[in-house]
Amino acid sequence: MTGSVISAVDLVKGLGKTLGLTPIEVEGATGFIDTNYEGKVRAALNALKTVDLVLVHVEAPDEAGHQGDLEKKVKAIELFDRKVVGPMFEGLKNYGEFRLALLCDHFTPVSAMTHTPEPVPFVIYPGPTNTARTFTEKQARSAGLYLEQGHTLIKLLLGDTK
C-alpha cells in the first residue's frame, strides 16, 4: 500500500513518515480552530488519485480540550464535521468504491485539559451496520465493538475480518 499523511503537527507527520506515509504540506494548516480544513480535504482527495490511503489529522478539538474551552471544543468538532467529514465523504464518492474511518487519536476532555485513557470511538464506512445517523461516544459504546489493540483498526478499515 502507498499512502500520505496530512497534519499540522510535526509528531503526527513524523509517525506517518516512520510508517512509510509521504507528508503533504497544506498552506494554512495550523493545528488550531483556524486551520485550512478545505485545503486538507482538497489535498487528501488529490493524493488519492495516486496513493491507496491518506491520513488526515485535525488537531483543533484536541487543542481546545487542552485549553479547557468547551465552546471552542464544540466549535472545533462542528467545523470538523462540516468542513472535513461531509466534503471528504462527498468527494470520495467520485472515486467509486472507498472506505472511510473517523476517529480521534485520544480523549482530551475540557474538564481534565489533558489526555485521558478511555477507548476512542470510531466509525468505519461502509461498516457492518451503517443505520445510525449520528456518531457519539454513547452510541459507539452501545455498539459493543471494542478493540483491545488499537493497531488492529487498520484490518477493519481494509475489510480484513480474520
Describe the secondary structure blueprint for this structure.
Blueprint: E1 3-6, H1 10-18, E2 22-23, H2 37-47, E3 53-56, H3 60-67, H4 70-92, E4 100-103, E5 122-125, H5 137-143, H6 153-157
Parallel strand pairs: 1-2, 1-3
Antiparallel strand pairs: 4-5
Commentary on this structure:
- With about 160 residues, the protein is an alpha/beta fold.
- It has one domain: 3-Layer(aba) Sandwich (Alkaline Phosphatase, subunit A), CATH 3.40.720.10.
- The chain contains six helices and five strands, in the order βαβαβααββαα.
- The strands form two sheets. A three-stranded parallel beta sheet has the order 2-1-3, sandwiched between helices. A two-stranded antiparallel sheet has the order 4-5.
- The longest helix has 23 residues.
- It is globular and about 40 Å long.
- It starts with a strand and ends in a 5-residue tail after the last helix.
CATH topology: Alkaline Phosphatase, subunit A
| Count of DSSP H/I helices | 6
Strand count, sense and closure of the main sheet? 3 strands, parallel
Count of domains:
1
The CATH superfamily appears as Alkaline Phosphatase, subunit A
Mean pLDDT: 91
Percentage of residues in helical conformation: 25-40%
Q: How would you spell out the order of helices and strands?
A: EHEHEHHEEHH
- Which residues form runs of ≥5 with pLDDT under 50? none
Rounded radius of gyration (Å): 16 Å
Number of strands: 5
Structural class: alpha/beta
The geometry reads as globular
Please indicate the percent range of residues in DSSP E strands (runs of 2 or more): 5-15%
User: What's the architecture, going by CATH?
Assistant: 3-Layer(aba) Sandwich
- List the strand order in the largest sheet: 2-1-3
Distance between the termini: 19 Å
CATH class: Alpha Beta
